[in-house]
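[Q] Does anyone have a clean structure-token version of this?
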Amino acid sequence: MARRCELTGKGVLTGNNVSHAKNRSRRRFLPNIQTVTLLSDSLKRGFRLSVSVHAIRSVEHNGGLDTFLMKSRDEALSIKARRIKKGIKKALDEKQVSA
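[A] Here you go.
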């Protein structure tokens, strides 16, 4: 399983463990990745994504998955998230045309 957030692109960082004697050994800082189901209002279904807890908080702060994806850049999103964003755009365009 890749340790990368599908919404923000947050991944593994590297650094040093530093002892009291200043001995350094390499270590990895792993992001807090959770597999959650996020609901889309415009598509009326849920999507199972591996996202960081920071991304979950950001989705909630922005008012849901739809608005978060519309505000985010495509470079940060995974292929799966880009497909969801494309479907949301299509659903919103159809809704505006029919209105």
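[Q] Thanks! Anything notable?
[A] The chain has one domain: 13-98.
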